Amino acid sequence: MNLQPVILCGGSGTRLWPLSREQYPKQLLALSGDHTLLQATARRVDKSLAVAGGKVCPPIVVANEDYRFITAEQLRQTGIVPASIVLEPVGRNTAPALTLAALIALQAGDDPVMLVMPADHIIIDTRAFSSAVALGAAFAEGGNLVTFGIRPTHPETGYGYIHAGTALAGQQDARSINAFVEKPDAATAADYLASGGYFWNSGIFMMRASFWLAQLGSTRPDIVNACRSAFASRSVDQDFLRIGKDAFAACPADSIDYAVMEKLADGVGVVIPLDAGWSDVGAWDALWQIGDKDADNNVLHGDVMAVATRDTLAISKSRLVAVVGLEGVVVVETPDAVLVANKSHMQQVKDVVARIKREGRTEANAHRKIYRPWGYYDSIDAGGRFQVKRIVVNPGAALSLQMHHHRAEHWIVVQGTARVTRGDETFLVAENESTYIPIGTKHRLENPGKVALEMIEVQSGAYLGEDDIVRFEDTYGRT
């Protein structure tokens, strides 16, 4: 049996603002431990599938085109080389994303069992997860569609539920599925908890690739046909697989649950109870619930001092944060925004994000530090006609050959050596040296060395927006 991990990297996580932004969603964040949620998922898959047995295939990752480079870089840092990073030109929910993965999985000529996981979940007990995966693989290989149910700890109204049936094949840890249930009200959720027969729907699934296509073909043939058309017009772009944009844009949007799971015939669906410290980290209070707490029940990350404070989550990313006399509060500090909220109002963080967008501010879209395929830049300061950036270029990387209509740039090298193209000349700039790029001059910055190139850029001019870039050549295929 071949096992094919599939990692779905959709979603933006607006309830985790200000850490999660549109250009840097929550799967790219390190919310629990040293690894990001995406990296932890990839590492967890690698370990768990070794326990499940059989041949383990490199993961298929389905990601949004906008953060393809940082996704690839984070996977590279784990040492795991994916079978494919599939780029969705537009978001169409999880059912089309999984369909693309199934089409790729079948290319090898076999029919693997797919382990389908969102990239933005936390699972603390990887050993328990491995055991559940091993059991689920046996059912999926036999022609079942397997999902993993989380034993509820409280009457949660933010999750869908699975009504479990009888134990299967003498396995107390595998049960039939009576029904999928929509998010309940508080009273119904309390009844579910008391009954003991309901589980939270984790959004983690296992099935053969051909089984998924057959099931979706019977319930949503329009999705299968659109995905096949988009897949037929695919192309390879460096480390990425691009699918046909127009065909995929015409694909209806639907979730795995709505498209297939809620329409399964009796005896087809199997739920495996999963007790592994799971959380989808849908809001900041969820991170507090699963976090390591101090003697006062606080979860503190970063440079935080807590005095006379209880039941509080406090996160610092760039400076000392002192919390005094608080109870049941969330404080999240970033270089450009700070959130202070009562834990009971976490769902309203999305209202803050909506207001930021309405007012045309940038804090909902991106962090001060912006990642690029060649490295990153951090906007340190800005005024009416100037902006200061710290730029870090990875060894061997190069920015595009470009030109600006409205700004000039002064570059000061702090570490490493820069190769600079300016007009018709190319020259090196060493540490503690500088150069100047006039308005309207073609230029390129490269790092020819083996250590990161760090420099300070001072922009000056009438307009300093990132859209004032005319690219003539680009290693990474950007226009």
Provide keyphrases for this structure:
Spore Coat Polysaccharide Biosynthesis Protein SpsA, Chain A; 5-stranded mixed β-barrel; 35% strand; 479 residues; globular; 6-stranded antiparallel sheet; 3 domains
Describe the structure.
By secondary structure, the protein is α/β, with parallel strands linked by helices. It folds into 3 domains: 2-279, Alpha-Beta Complex (Spore Coat Polysaccharide Biosynthesis Protein SpsA, Chain A), CATH 3.90.550.10; 287-357, no CATH class; 369-473, Jelly Rolls. It has 11 helices and 31 strands. 24% of the residues lie in helices and 35% in strands. The strands form 7 sheets. A 6-stranded antiparallel sheet has the order 21-22-23-30-25-28, with no helix packed on it. Strands 7-10-8-9-13 form a 5-stranded mixed barrel. It starts with a strand and ends in a 6-residue tail after the last strand. It is globular and about 75 Å long. Helix 1 (37-52) packs across helix 2 (68-78), helix 3 (94-105) packs across helix 6 (209-219) and helix 6 (209-219) crosses helix 7 (221-232). The mean pLDDT is 93. A hairpin with a 3-residue loop joins strand 22 and strand 23 (386-393).
